[in-house]
Design brief:
Length: 308
Amino acid sequence: MSRNSAGILFLIAGIAVFAVQDLILKLLSGTYPLHQAMVMRSLTAVPFLLILVKLNGGLSTLITPGLPRMIGRGITMFTAYTSYYLALAALPLATTVALYFAAPLFITLLSVLILNEKVSILRWLAVGTGFAGVIIMVRPGSDLFDWAAPLAVVSGLTYGVSMVSARRMGSHETAAALAFWGNAVFLVCALILSAIFGSGEFAGAGHKSVAFMTRGWVWPTGFDTLLMMACGVIAAAGLTLLTQAYRIAQSNVVAPFEYTALIWGVLYGWVFWSDWPDATGWIGIAIIVGAGLFVIWLERVEAYTSRQ
């Protein structure tokens, strides 16, 4: 099996695993604070990640000259997933996932602004079209606008940055080490948020996203404790699978398969909350997905042409 084929399989598996975590966190978002779920998730993930590190090069892979970059990537991923989970508390699952998939569009912009890469007119048109789809989904100025929508867009931006950095570090760092330090940053940041909001002093906000962040710690039921701990196992497996996908394969080959998350988002939203995108929502989803896939396809064509 080629590295790209293996990367595709790793990515599809990672997306399916993380879709279960999205479902769990949305189910818990009305009762518990996000930082509590993240602390329990991160603590549960530690032993599993250590086992993966041991099997994937040993503990020595955790302390390398690239450690600061791995921690920096962890902070970026923490920003991405925190924004995503906060949006998830207030928005339908499919809407959150669709807005998050502005990531390929942001990657194109970043490649110009930061890497000084040249972008064709077709790619610019695709990016512009994709952002039009984002605007349709966000619906600024309408009665259906929700302040959680920009959080989902921010999550797409920061996730794209973290995955690009994983590709750059892949030749020097193992997937398990990247996942371990990503989880370590999650734990530290979640503990900081718990120290700030855990007492419940800032609770009482009306908006679901704000309430999910500022709510004080709640003593969980046995079943809910298991759900939070399950997120730790999911995080350990999902982070490793996604990181491995981008380590071993070309990012523009595996990236289109990120969109399989929309299948799970629509399915779980319909089954558990009877959420189904309206006509405008489907139009926005189609535009974002179509533009993102077109950008990725153009990148592959341009990369192939440049090698000729």
